[in-house]
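Memo to structure team: turn this sequence into structure tokens by end of day. - J.P.
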Amino acid sequence: MRKADLLLDDARLVTPAGIVHGAAAIRAGRFVAIGSREDLPDAEERIDAGGRLVFPGLVDPHVHLGGAFPYEQNLVTECVSAAAGGVTTLLQYRRSATSFFDTFPGELETNRQKMGLDTGFHFIIGSLEQAEGIPEYAKRWGVRSYKLYMGGYAPGNPIGLVAVDDGVFYRAMELIRELGPYAYCMCHAENQGLYLLMNERAHESGRTDLSAYAMSHPDFIEHEAVARLVWLGERTGCPVYVFHTTTGAAIATAAAARARGARVVIETCPHYLALTIDDARLASQGPAIGKVSPPLRDASDQEALWDAIARGDVDLIGTDHVPILKTGATVWEERPGFAGLATMLPVLVTFGLLRGRLTATRLAELCSLAPARTFGLTPRKGAIAVGTDADAAIVDIEREAVVGPETTHSRYTSAFEGLPLRGWPALPLRRGEVVFRDGEVRLRPGSGEILTPGAYEREPARSGT
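Reply from structure team:
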């Protein structure tokens, strides 16, 4: 048996089949053997996991980079924060104020020079003209997933997001459905007319607390928009992806469509599973720290999300990571969003695994295997298995640490600031390479790879011989 490059020993490996207490051998960046130590090859280097859980590297399907800060800067800093949190694959949303044919080639080259983790892309469509380019985007760059905003942002908003009408959605769906597997029409599900009305009323209330912001994005407008989205998807035969879902009613509507045979993928985010709109810690830090779009909900909707996860109605979890610095402005003036890459795994360990809401295997499915399968990255990504990339994180679920810049390795605002969490990665690997150890970043900018949906299905599995 050929010698391996690295051996993870005395590990509780979280695999799709369950937890395997043993070892994993890595060669040329991939897992080549998994089992008991005596059955595995010798290795140049050995890492003792000390009986701790080893999760597959997390695949975050929902990441925003650039915008508030230079894109090339974010590619470096946010990879560091992601690696510290055990996230080894990022799927980024890109948008263009003009044409993707003008802007994306340069962004792609910037990724090749600066990106430290493996990455893929979704495009945000803001007009009918951009929608008409979908076939060529897929042909030229392999992009198969496209996000459109039904509503939730007023015209002229400082972020520059554009809500499109149902005609643009319909045309985009007609084009996306022809792209084949792993193609999705992705939706920010809010009703624009209702949002504008509710936003005006919320402003007229004179309130500036976080709950006032939630009044401008009430839960029923998400429910209505999801119902309309899945109907359009059924009408056109286009698979749809509902991201950052916050309400039980919206999930029930999407799940019912799926039961009828519609192709619907449902995502939620860690902050909706762990935080509520009346969170006292957030209120003490300032009402805008917890501002996110869509907003945090109340405890009943949060419980509905956990119930949906237990039923299998939620398919995967993404962070909706936005690297911004909250300024201390009012809830109406502050940008929505916050950084979440470093805290996804600790949040789900603390609020899910340790509270009996998730098993380790289910957590790995939601955050690794399901996003990799959804976006055509298997069998290369998403699991600890022979032949997959050796992306993994040794996790110490006993060690508690308070969220702050020292733990997130980020300068950007976290909604979990000051909260003690367990489940921090002690040692993450990306393609068999240690990228973070003992507080030291070992990630090299430009060492990430660009991923293409569906490109890895015919790759031969690598054995341990």
